[in-house]
Design brief:
heterodimer; A: alpha+beta; 2 domains; four-stranded antiparallel β-sheet; 16 strands; 52% helix; B: alpha/beta; Rossmann fold; 10 strands; 24% strand; globular
């Protein structure tokens, strides 16, 4: 029997008992549907995170904090010993050890580190544009090498004397610009208070407007001349010892380092008493959470498929029983046991094929609808965010895996069919 | 002479079988059984269904295997049709020892040279008449176009060409058995095995089926091996093999 005939015969055999086939396919459908949807969400979120990885910071950047410190502040679970000369800052109950010039020198002298600087935090009061309305905002430093999705203009330049600012897409209109494009090249004023309470104003040039993204929630990005100017004003009159302290040092490492060498560098810094993480490590935490959720959902899909495979076994065992005489006849007419086996395992794979095809299509449809709803509503501000993503290859992989599961489930009934003795089978009542 | 150790690709074995048929027509002995015994079960529960049977069937003969139920006539037919293997003794098909053939060669031999007609028809009621008839060709791996052509020819020879597209379940008993004969004919077999071919039919319809079978025997020289209870049918055959308790008790000629 030719392969095409086996395929056609198996397909028409499958539809002999329509209800039974339908019920078996439903079980496979559920598994395929879940797998497609979870993987679609996984792929959608992962691709967005990958994209954002470039948005938040350069890949060669290390965020360095004192050891025992983490982004959420000092752990208070066990009392830490105070070391002479350490400075601590306390914001809203979260205390952080500060780094000083001595730490900066130590980090700069570490092999593999290209440059290191304090991550200067400034707290301006307001930003104001042509309509003179004052708005509060959060300022953060612009780091070289950061990928930014721009709506208009260009990225800030750190290697200039000009004070530059990058707005997010919702600022130009409230500040009184006609459009984001019209804001480019215009000056805005940034207000900041000195330690004595004196209000000072710094003018900065708008160089660009960026799309709002998950990672741009940090605020408006300022180039280093603007940051230093604001910092100078903010610390005006304070002794140098009080100003040269920051909770975070950002460093650039040699980009030619491979993963192993990078790990070594982190370890060296760790031994010196610092906790160094890359942007990828930071994002990795979010990714791990999402991956874990997807793994759990996939596990449930796996259980659905396991149950479905027993359904396939059951359905085909009944089919083999029903078609005993037919099998006997075909064997009497010279059909080999191998071909009989192939006929029934093909039928199993076809059950898997139809179940996974319909399940994947339904999964993709539901995923796309959910994506449309999500991006139109609660994810509206996150331009470029796709809740789900369905690469064709991954759907094929899912279908292939399900067909393999179906094939394995089909081997038991197919083997039983192939072992039938034609004489016994023809005599079967 | 056919050497069984030759490579057994499908194409080659078809050629081999053609050579076999050619050889057999020279020797005129299509099936030859030498001291075949078939024992079911083991040791104490052993039961001899066939005991030391010697048989020689020539091309173009029509043989009736008769006997009461339990006499071993079905067992004999199954052995001759290569559906079963004897416990001892040897069976020669076209002068070739069947015990030396591989499973695949046995399958091919049944597919290419044998036709089967059963009392219970064994038609697939979901499929069309044509689909049922071309099953042996489908198993042989023939192209759809060729097998449809041959299927229609075979149906024409049993006067059922107009029913080709009907469902098998829509036919009467006699028509069903004619479809079975068309199915047995389609591969141009040298032997047709018929197990109680008229057992499920009324005598008038049964007669028509008998006439059809003997017409094929006379006109195309197809060897008939018929297992039957029916004395009338047995008498129409050129030779009767009467079995009792697994032994041949007479070998009457017409």
């Amino acid at each position: 029997m030719k392969l095409i005939d086996i395929l056609q015969t198996a397909n028409s055999n499958m539809f002999r008992s329509r209800l039974r086939t339908f019920l078996t396919i439903i079980a496979i459908f559920i598994g395929a549907f879940t797998l497609t949807l979870t993987n679609g969400i996984g792929a959608g979120v992962a691709s967005y995170i990958d994209e954002q990885l470039g948005n938040i910071g350069a890949k060669d950047m290390l965020i360095i904090q004192p050891k025992n410190s983490n982004p959420f502040g000092e752990s208070t679970s066990t009392p830490q010993k105070y070391e002479e000369g350490q400075s601590v800052t306390n914001t809203g109950g979260i205390s952080m050890t500060l780094l000083n010039q001595n730490d900066l020198d130590k980090i700069r002298s570490t092999p593999g580190i290209v440059s290191a600087d304090f991550d200067i935090s400034v707290a301006p009061n307001y930003i104001s544009g042509p309509n003179s309305d004052k708005f509060k905002f959060t300022a953060s430093s612009y780091y070289d090498g950061v990928n930014i999705s721009l709506k208009a203009g260009s990225i800030p330049n750190n290697h200039t004397d000009e004070k530059q600012i990058l707005l997010t897409s919702d600022f130009p209109t409230v500040l009184g610009f006609e459009s984001p494009e019209k804001a480019i090249g215009q000056n805005v004023s940034v207000g900041i208070k000195t330690p004595t309470g004196e209000q000072k104003v710094v003018y900065a040039k708008v160089v660009g407007v960026q799309e709002k993204t998950l990672m741009s929630m940090g605020g408006l990005q300022l180039n280093s001349p603007l940051i230093s100017e604001l910092h100078t004003l903010q610390t005006e009159g304070l002794p140098a010892d009080a100003t040269n302290k920051q909770p975070i040092i950002t460093a650039r490492f040699d980009q030619s380092l491979n993963d192993k060498q990078l790990e070594q560098l982190k370890k060296t810094l760790n031994e010196k008493g610092y906790n160094a993480i890359t942007i990828e490590d930071q994002i990795g935490i979010i990714k791990q959470v999402i991956d874990a959720v997807i793994a759990v959902l996939n596990f449930f899909a796996g259980i659905a498929l396991l149950a479905a495979s027993f359904g396939i076994v059951n359905t085909l065992l009944m089919a083999v029983q029903e078609r005993t005489k037919e099998i006997g006849l075909m064997k009497a007419m010279g059909m080999s046991s191998r071909k009989v086996f192939l006929l029934f395992s093909t039928e199993a794979m076809l059950l898997g094929f139809w179940g996974s095809l319909i399940g994947s299509l339904a999964g993709v449809t539901v995923g796309l609808v959910a994506n449309k709803v999500a991006t139109d509503t609660f994810l509206k501000d996150l331009v470029g965010f796709e809740l789900t993503s369905f690469p064709l290859l991954s759907i094929f992989v899912i279908m292939f895996i399900i067909m393999m599961i179906a094939f394995l489930a089909g081997t038991l009934p197919a083997r039983r069919a192939s072992k039938k003795d034609p004489i016994e089978a023809l005599r079967y009542e | 002479m056919w050497v069984s150790s030759q490579p057994n690709t499908e194409a080659k074995s078809i050629v081999k079988i053609d050579v076999l048929i050619y050889n057999s027509r020279n020797h005129m002995s299509v099936i030859s059984a030498k001291k075949i015994t078939r024992v079911y079960g083991k040791k104490e529960s052993a039961f001899k269904a066939l005991d030391n049977i010697n048989l020689d069937i020539k091309q173009g003969e029509s043989i009736a295997i008769i006997g009461k139920s339990g006499s071993g006539k079905s067992t004999l037919m199954h052995l001759l049709a290569l559906l079963d293997t004897p416990t001892s003794g040897s069976l020669f098909i076209n002068d070739q020892d069947s015990g030396k053939l591989s499973k695949k060669e046995l399958d091919n031999l049944r597919n290419q040279s044998f036709g089967f007609v059963f009392q219970q028809f064994f038609l697939n009621s979901n499929n069309s008449v044509l689909e049922n008839v071309i099953l042996p060709l489908k198993i042989a791996g023939m192209d759809r176009k060729d097998r449809t052509k041959r299927g229609l020819e075979a149906l024409r020879s049993v006067d059922l060409a107009d029913k080709a597209k009907n469902k098998a379940s829509d036919l009467s008993g006699g028509q069903k058995q004619r479809v079975c004969i068309a199915r047995a004919l389609i591969n141009n077999p040298s032997i047709i095995f018929a197990d109680e071919p008229t057992g499920n039919l009324d005598s008038q319809t049964g007669n028509k089926i008998e006439n059809l079978l003997f017409k094929l025997n006379k006109e195309q020289g197809i060897t008939l091996i018929i297992v039957t209870h029916d004395d009338e049918l047995a008498k129409r055959c050129s030779r009767q093999i009467n079995l009792k308790d697994g032994k041949v008790i007479n070998r009457g000629k017409k």
